[in-house]
């Protein structure tokens, strides 16, 4: 399954008793539609995510980052300390693609992926590009 959403908190790395590391974070996905009365309905779904392949990715996964995730979804249910039944969606991730990632540094926003942008051959803009209204 593929989902696209924004991180609701910074990723955390947990080390288990068997020395394996897992990156945990949460994302929110938004959907909107119009009901029969024509009212716009917005719906947000939250996913608890776990990534087992490499813990190094955690430093890129900060609150607000837009990510595309590939993996499998499963549900979980539990009885809370208050005796109430709870349910949640978990997403076991096999691939992560960053769509936007910005870290705040001294009040300025800088892209984490600047190195990667150069590697994929982003052309340098010049003065003549400013008049161009093409979307790419």
UniProtKB/TrEMBL annotation:
Organism (species): Chryseobacterium zhengzhouense
Disordered, as annotated region: 99-136
Coiled coil: none
Lineage: Bacteria, Pseudomonadati, Bacteroidota, Flavobacteriia, Flavobacteriales
Gene Ontology MF terms: DNA binding
Protein name per its UniProtKB record: Single-stranded DNA-binding protein
A Pfam family assignment: SSB
Entry keyword set: DNA-binding
Domain of life from the UniProt record: Bacteria
């Amino acid at each position: 399954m593929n989902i696209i959403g924004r991180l609701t908190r910074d990723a955390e790395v947990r080390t288990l008793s068997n020395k394996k590391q897992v990156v945990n974070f949460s994302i929110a996905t938004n959907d909107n539609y119009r009901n029969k009365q024509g009212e716009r309905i917005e719906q947000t779904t939250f996913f608890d995510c776990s990534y087992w392949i490499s813990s190094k990715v955690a430093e890129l996964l900060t609150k607000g980052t837009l990510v595309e995730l590939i993996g499998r979804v499963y549900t979980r249910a539990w009885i809370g300390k208050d005796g109430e039944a709870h349910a949640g969606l978990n997403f076991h991730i096999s691939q992560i693609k960053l769509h936007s990632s910005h870290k705040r540094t001294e009040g300025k926003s800088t892209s984490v992926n600047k190195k990667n942008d150069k590697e994929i051959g982003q052309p340098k803009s010049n003065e003549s590009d400013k008049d161009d209204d093409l979307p790419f």
